[in-house]
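User: Show me a protein chain along with its predicted structure.
Assistant: Here is one chain, sequence first, then C-alpha cells.
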Amino acid sequence: MVNSLFSMSGAQFPQFWTRPPATWRDAEALYALLKLFAGMRKADPESPVPEAWSAGTRRCADAWVRHWKHHGQVGQLINVHTGEIVVGRGTNGGLFPAALARAATEFEEARYLECAEEMALSFYEDYVKPGLIHGGTQDALQSPDSESAFALLDSFVTLYETTGARHWVAKADATAAQCASWCMSYDFAFPPASQFGRLGMRTTGTVYPNIQNKHAAPGICTLSPGALLRLFRATGGQRYLELLRDIAHAVPQFLSRADRPIVAGGRAMPPGMMNERVNTSDWEGRENIGEVFYGSCWCEVAALCAPGPKYPDSTSSPIPALPAQSTTSTLKSSNTPATQFAFESTIPPRIPPPLKS
C-alpha cells in the first residue's frame, strides 16, 4: 500500500478527486507516515526506511512549508495541480503542526519545527482562543467540527513533547475542553424496538463529527484519542483520562460481530463492519433513531486506534491498554474489565449487554 502511494503520479489524481481535496488528507498522510517510520525503526533498528518512502514524505513536508510561507494559511480545499487555495481559512489542516514537528525530528530539519510552531500559534489565536474551531470536514463546508479540534489537540501536545515549552500544554488544555463539548456525556434511551435499543447500546463517549451531521459516531474522525493520555501525562489531569476512557469504551460496541451482528435494512453487516451512525435524533426520520444504514465507514479506522493489551506504551500504539502514572499511583483500565486485574477500577469499562430477545 505504501509503495503504491509513492509511485502515484500527479496526472493520476483526477480519476480519484471529483472536487478539490481537503488539506487534512495531506496532514493525516504525513503524520501517519512519520509515525510509521518511527514504529519501524523501533521494531527493527537495523532495517532502514526505504529511501523512496523517506524522499516522498520529505517532499510532502517541503510542499506544505512552501504553501504556508506563500499563503500564510493552510486553507480548507486546494488545487492539487497548482497548490492554490480554492476555499480558504478554517482548521482543516489542524494536524499539520504535529506532522511537521515529527518531520523535524525524523529529518533533523529545524525549519519544519519553525513552520509547525507558526501554524499552531495561528490556529490557536484565530480559532481556539475565540472558541470557533471550524472547517475540518470536506463535506460540511465551514461548519464547526470536532475532527479538527482533536487534530489541533494532538498538534499542541506533540509540540510540547518536541520542544518542552509549557505554553503548548495550556493551549492543549483549552483545546481539550472544546473537544469534550463534542462528546456525549450520557447514555441515550433508544426506542426499545430499535436496533440499538435491542442491543443495549450506550452512547457515553460517542463523538459528534460536526454540526451538519446530526448524529454521534463511534470514535474520532479519523484520529486516535491518544493525545488525551499524553496530555494527562503532562498535567496529571484526571478529566483527560476520563474522556479518553469514555471514547475508547464506546467504539467496540458498534462493531458488527458474528455472535452479535448489527442489522441494517434487513441485512446483517459482516463481522468487522462498523457504521458511523449513532442516531439519537429524528434528523433522518423517527424510524431511524437507533438505526444505521448498511455500509462500511471511517469509524473502523477509529476502532483500529482503540487500546490493545499487546501494546506496552503509547509510542507503539496510540493508547496502551493499562495507562499508569507512576508519580500519582494512578492505574486505570482503558479497555479491559476490572475483574481481570487485582484492583478495582474506579471507572469501570462499559461493556454492552448481550442481544435481548
